[in-house]
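Technical note accompanying the year-one report. For the benefit of new consortium partners, we illustrate the data format agreed upon in the data management plan: each record pairs a sequence with a structure-token string. No post-processing was applied to the example shown here.
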Amino acid sequence: MSEEDVYRLLERVRTYYQHLSRSDELCDEWFRILKNYEVSEVNENLDKYLSVERNRNRIPMPQDLIQDLWTIEECQQSQKSYIVNCNLCKRPMTLENYNKHYDRCSSIHYLLQIMRLQGIEVEYKDLASLNDNKFNVIYEKYKDY
């Protein structure tokens, strides 16, 4: 969240709790706590907080609004360890590596079809094992078939 996001969030809170201070110190402290979180998620937690009857007379604290949230960095780290399967070859990989793998995998599947139409028998593993330079040479040769 940016400082401006925190300011807008505090303005939202003030619409429900008019006696909340407007000090720079309050804004700074909320920013210090909330800066590593996604603004949309914090606002969603504020909505949840406000919908609970027992909270009507209790001003939310920043900690109330980040409960059960991951920081932006934690989300990025989870993508590095989150395992997904390729839709084409069903091979497991980290989410972080998925796009690069999928681009290559779909190119291999395309080449297999084109090469087989031309009577060239080749297997997926043979194309997958090529380094990028060798693969690109073959791909360029057959891509416009």
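Partners are asked to follow this layout when depositing records. The chain has two domains: 3-72, 82-142.
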